[in-house]
Amino acid sequence: MRRAALIIIAIALGCTGSAQAKRKTAPAPAPVVVAPPPLPTSVDRLDFEQMKVILKSFGWKAEFTGGGKDPYLGVWSKLGMPYTITGVQCPDDTGRNCEAIRLWYRNPVQHPDAAGISRRINQSQFFLRSRFQPSHDGSPPYLFPERTIILKGGVTPAQIAANLIEFDRWIIDLVPNVGYALPASYTGPRKAPVAQSASAAPSGSGLVPGRYRTTINNSNGTFSEDICMTASDMREPIQKIAADLTNGGSGCSISGGGGSVRMQCTGRIVDGNISASGMSTSLRWSGNALINTDGLGGRDRIQFQGSASRIGDC
Amino acid sequence: MQHPMGRVLLGAASAAALLGAGSAHAQTASELFNPAQVLRAALAAPDSGITAATETRTKDGKPVVRLAGANGLTVWVQGGHCTAAGCPSAWFWVKVTPPAGTDRQALVDRYNESPRWASAHVAGDAVELRGEVMFAGGISDANLAQYVRSITHHAARLSAGQA
Fold it and tell me: What is the mean pLDDT of residues A76-85?
């Protein structure tokens, strides 16, 4: 596009002097027709200007380019979905001339089970790739569905188009399934978003099974032990897992909702209230509990805080 | 998350439809999965460590390419989303076993954080890398070779416990 504009400017400047001198006698100039930049037959490095031409050839739009060390291209699919293209495997610090491109959905997608969703995406199909990242403000973690296309060796514009259009289809399907409405710019048929709580429920805590080092503080001191938690355990809500860890590894049920839930256990704890949060390989919790002090009916109410971090496989 | 699994099942069903279409590969070489092209590209792939490439068949008759690496890795390549006309993509996968004691889930999560073509997931005691290459629009041997190089390179790293 920039090349076309330069051609138009160059032609306009070149004509200015003579046009003024001959204004009275020269016929009206024919409209300048500038041919669009030719579509390359093969692409083996990222060139943003070239990429814009390719995108335009199948109805996508390049909206803006970000500069700096990590330049990017903001694009819109033919159906109005917002994506970003960045370079991968770049030979220098410019972020250009990269040997591959990464395409990702530009709108933020946060989900309490971003880790679980991401892992299931990577496990259940071959095309789409997903990663997750914790947020810095305590809100749910981010989900990043993406696709990397290798350019090195040479790729036809048609193949780039095929990849991008397929990615577009995947994202249009995925976004409502993780509880988000498709953006207002989207012009295709819409599907109602699935409620996040409903989609998060089957996946449970989002924690990775394995051996966890658990530390619990209460008025009697600090206690630590390693507890193995299976995939089946991790399908439970995180408050249930935290209650079980506090109770020595199992034996609790929870009820209620919101930040703090009620727990009832057999073993060390009789009952109490607990709140918990965590992601992927660690969790923290706090609460109060009525505990069985001697197994003979003695009771004491305590406050406690706990944390657990994954230290390896079971 | 019904969609990804649904699409895999659809792909499997389509692949099954190919069983009676052995001549599909006689069509265009570069716009459809062609085992011969994969074999050719894999053996020419720079720094891939591929020492042998053979075409074989699954139990139900689907063509599969087996790429054997010098380091003991085996990459499998099979047509994806196949119809009677052929397969417009190829599915690559390789399983590796990281060193004993490696936290496989943590390794996989770290690997997936970086921008790479293939994704990783924990598969029992192993880690599996998988990715899809689209053939629609045409793919050159040189570009296909880069995908082979990418998956063998990262599989070797994961088998050494490196993300």
Answer: 97
- Asked whether the whole model's pTM tops 0.80, one would answer no
B113-148 burial, b at 16+ Cβ within 10 Å, e below that, comes to: eebbbbbbbbbeeebbbbbbbbbbbbbbbbbbbbbb
Q: Which fold is adopted by the domain A39-201?
A: Yope Regulator; Chain: A, (3.30.1460)
Under CATH, which number does the domain B2-159 receive? 3.30.1460.10
Confidence of residue A281 (pLDDT cuts 50, 70, 90): confident
Of B5, B120, B138, the CB nearest to A156: B138
**What does the pLDDT read at residue A104?**
96
- Distance (Å) from the C-alpha of residue B111 to the closest C-alpha of chain A? 9
Q: Which residue ranges in chain B fall short of pLDDT 50?
A: 1-29
Q: Is the pLDDT of residue A93 over 90?
A: no
- Start-end of CATH 3.30.1460 domains in chain A: 39-201
Residue A67 binned pLDDT confidence (cut-offs 50, 70, 90): confident
Q: Do A126 and B146 touch (CB under 8 A)?
A: no
Give the nearest partner residue to B143 out of A122, A150, A208, using CB atoms.
A150
